[in-house]
Amino acid sequence: MAGYRRQLYRDDAVVLRVQKLGESDRIITLLSRRHGRLRAVARGVRRITSKFGARLEPFGHIDLQLAGDPKGQQGSSLHTVSQVEGIDLYGKRLLGDYPRYTAASAVCETAERLTPVEREPSLRLFQLTLGALRALADGEHAATLVLDAYLLRGMALAGWAPALAGCAVCGTPGRHRAFSVPAGGAVCLDCRPPGAAHPAPATIDLMTALTSGDWRVADAAENGVRRECSGLVAAHLQWHLERALRSLPLVDRGGPAAGAVGTPAGGVGPAVAGVDRE
Ligand SMILES: [Zn+2]
Fold first, then answer.
1. What would the pLDDT profile of 178-229 be if each residue is shown by its tens digit?
2. Where exactly does CATH 2.40.50.140 map onto the chain?
3. CA–CA distance from 183 to each of 157, 187, 202 (Å)?
4. CATH superfamily of 1-140
5. Tens-digit pLDDT profile for residues 113-142
6. How many angstroms is it from 189 CA to the middle of ligand 1?
7. CA–centroid distance, residue 211 to ligand 1 (Å)
8. Among 64, 56, 52, which residue's Cα sits nearest to residue 10?
């Protein structure tokens, strides 16, 4: 590649995904603080003698030096990892805890889906993702609540958070009883489309609390309310993403509703499935 010189640059990042490449290399998908989402090759990390293989596991917060064009305008879009330091390797703390591990997988898959363009900085999404992984590792709140708070705030950053404080269609303020994913969230009786769900008022309260970070309300929510909230959040997210998340159905929600994500009681599933998006 004539005239192309790779530059060295530093950033801190969370590891979203790790894929094998050949015998001993890996491709690491990162969400970095200043350079957005990027992919980098880590050479030789699968050898036992590798110094930094363990620092490049999923969910870790790392400080790293990369080689490549930070603006991505020249040469390969794939950068090379030349140095790594672990800041906090959350993945180690999540091993052996299936609900937290699967929630972290859903957080990282969502972060990747919310950043369709490589190297487009999104400081707020980076901070949100880092905060969610840290909260999952710390274990202060239930994993499903941390995940749903992350999904609601991530959707807000993307500009398609569900309406909760007013009707999604006409804007009339208030806590409305009906909820329609295709309409964009809570809807008033006049605007309520066929197939709208009618979640418990406490479910809308929980979604509001998770969006604003009111953990006193969120931690006190009953299991049935948590499951209904998870179902609505998952249905709203998947309505706006082109493909369903692979990791979301795997999240352990501690009850019979696990595996029924996206089709909770209340008719969200049929309302979503019955509308042709194309
Ligand atoms: Zn309305």
1. 999 999 999 999 999 999 999 999 999 999 999 999 999 999 999 999 999 9
2. 1-140
3. 19, 8, 20
4. Nucleic acid-binding proteins (2.40.50.140)
5. 999 999 999 999 999 999 999 999 999 999
6. 7
7. 21
8. 64
